[in-house]
Fold this protein.
Amino acid sequence: MSPLSRVLSAPAAPGAAGQVDALLSDPARSGKRDPSASPPEPAAGRPAEPEVWLPGGPAGLGTSAARALLPPTAGHGAPAPAATPRAGDPIPGLHCPPAVPADPAKVAEVDRRLEAWAHEISLFPPEWAGDFAGFQFGRAVVLQHPGAADLERLVVAGKLLVAENAIDDCYCEDYGGSPIGLGGRLIIAQSALDPLHTADGYQQQWHEGLGTDAPLRSYADAIQSYRDIATPSQVTRFVHDMARLHLGYLAEGSWAQTRTTPPVWQYLVMRQFNNFRPCLSLVDAVDGYELPEPLYSRPEVQRVTALACNAATLVNDLYSFTKEMAADEHHLNLPVVIAVEERCGLKDAFLKAVDIHNEIMHAFEDEAAAVATGGPLLARYTTGLAAWVAGNHEWHHTNTYRYSLPNYW
């Protein structure tokens, strides 16, 4: 699944977890599995309520920064996970810092403005409105940007999220999407962000072409809104990260077209491009400041940014797993490629994918804490990354309209 999950995808099927588990009985599909194998002991830290999760783990930046944004009464010492997670619970053992609770009034207003905007540009037909609401765009961006400078900046982040999902669905996956011819569609989409400069007659044809396609309209309008709140450097950074995203789409599409299951390391390369990085590119602009390019381009800052993006994207792999496998058992995600490479069952592969996520997440926390000592701007930026990762996890595990967990605990 593309990192910017599907705006128009159907909610998780009630029996999806059972369908996924049934795959384990077929060695040709999921590899051999030791029925006596036990899952790893889950880490402490599942919440009694899904709004705030305070896990154990190292006291790096990811934990401390997010805790600092929580109300003073936010709980500590949460109970150990139950044997079987309930609907809306996080994945047992998945390490992530706590999210700042989303203000319901702010969520409702962002949602209202985003839906009005989507209708204004005729982005989707009326019959898709339920899935649009079920995605919870407003709640996503409010959770991911708790330090937002104002409501308008949250709406801009929401517009970009909506537009990215529209391109993903309509060009790559569910609604007319296909790996065949994907490169031609994506290069035109990129031009909606990085405008064409050519002879007048062809410039006009390009402009008119953007206007005839709803996903292209959403890209063009959303990036204009971003230009209104961001610096030129921040816009250039975002446009570059969208090109990286489109390159990742092409890699995933090529493997889908040839029914290729890549080695795990190659899959992780693809996921570093086909991931949430464009969303995390916004953290300083949404919070109302700029991390200057000389700081942003430093290798250690690029590394912690990549670690945050990769951890957040693997969260999507894990929470989308049940829905994806119920719809298409060949769909690429981290547990599937692990199962094929290691010739193990999907349950064991899923639990190993949790461990891979946790290793990346701990590396982010530890290295971001070191980067944050480089000055107040770097501390603010790494805190914003940590908050985005935490909010992304909170949105995933509480969005029961879209996601459910396999019966692996």
